[in-house]
Every structure is written in C-alpha cells, then in structure tokens.
Amino acid sequence: QERPPGAFLAATANDITGLPPELLRKGRWDELFWVDLPTPREIREILRVSLLKYNRDPSTIDLAAVARSCQGFTGSEIDALVPDAMFRAFADGRRPICTEDLTVVSSRIVPLSTTMAGKIDAMREWARKRARRASLDEEQEEAAGTGGGRSLDVDDVTRN
Fold first, then answer.
1. In whole angstroms, what is the distance from residue 149 CA to residue 136 CA?
2. C-alpha–C-alpha distance, residues 20 and 81, integer Å
3. DSSP state, 80?
4. pLDDT of 136
C-alpha cells in the first residue's frame, strides 16, 4: 500500500479468488488486470521472442501459420514449441527448424485451456466484472489502430 513516489509495483497470481478481500481492495493496488490467453498477435510475438531466445531467425518461419495452430495455448506452451521443434529438426538430419516443425509439435500439445476449460471459464467470468483486460482483442486493436495490446512505458528511475 505504501510506496515511494515513482515506484511501480506489479504482482501476479494464477488465481486470486482465494486471496483475502483486503488484499484486493481499491487503494491497495492501483488496478487489477486480467491476463487472458494470448491473442493471435500476441502468439506471433511470443513465437518471435522465443525464436530469438534460441538464436533462430523468425523471418524464416511463417509465424501466422504457427499462431493458427496455437489457439488456446498459454505463453509458456507457445515458448516450449521452439526447443521441441529444434529436437525434431535435429533428429531429422540436423537441419534448421521450419514452420512445419513448429506446427507438428504444437499439434501434439493438449493446451491447459482444454485440460482446465471449466476453471479458466470461471476465472474469465470472475475477471469480466472485477478486473481490467490487460490486452486488446484483434478487433479492438484494429479499431484503436495500435497494432498491439496495451503497453507500459517505464522511465529509468534514479535511486537515491
């Protein structure tokens, strides 16, 4: 609740419904955000970042095609595709990964949104009335002309 000026504090929880109400009241936090499963644009960005993390060139991959095969995936499930695709490509003659490697490994995953569909739907319903969406859906992005979800600009803060 108490913090120095210029400080931004973020906390995350997979499910806040079990937390005591006093931790969630207005004033304790400036805002409660609901981070849903990634939108298609966010899936493409997660893939791009993951490919770079593993020193792979995103321009060699059809990110949109892979994103279509990842609907309902969490960010960590999407991130896990790249090393799995690398193992597949290595086993197939030590070649660079391609779009097909990523779509094949994605087809073998049962996403959490399927495994825990009821719980995720209940969390969405809870958040719909109680929290602010952390990202825009595709239609909202187009209408806003932003080409992306919300962003936060954080200035360098000089520590005393």
1. 5
2. 36
3. T
4. 75
Within 8 A by CB and 6+ apart from 158, the residues are none
The secondary structure element, H or E, covering residue 14 is none
Residue 18 per-residue DSSP state: G
| Dihedral over alpha carbons 75, 80, 85, 90 (to 10 degrees) | 150
Q: Other CB atoms closer than 10 Å to residue 65's CB: what's the count?
A: 12
Residue in 8, 43, 31, 24 with CA at minimum distance from that of residue 137: 43
Distance, CA of 26 to CA of 24 (rounded, Å) = 7
Residue type, 70: C
20 Rama class: left (phi>0) / alpha (psi -120 to 50) / beta = beta
Which amino acid, 143?
A
Dump pLDDT digits (tens) for 92-103: 999 999 999 999
Give tens-digit pLDDT for 119-135. 999 989 988 888 888 88
- Kindly report whether the global pTM for this prediction surpasses the value 0.90: no
Distance between CA atoms of residues 78 and 47, nearest Å: 7
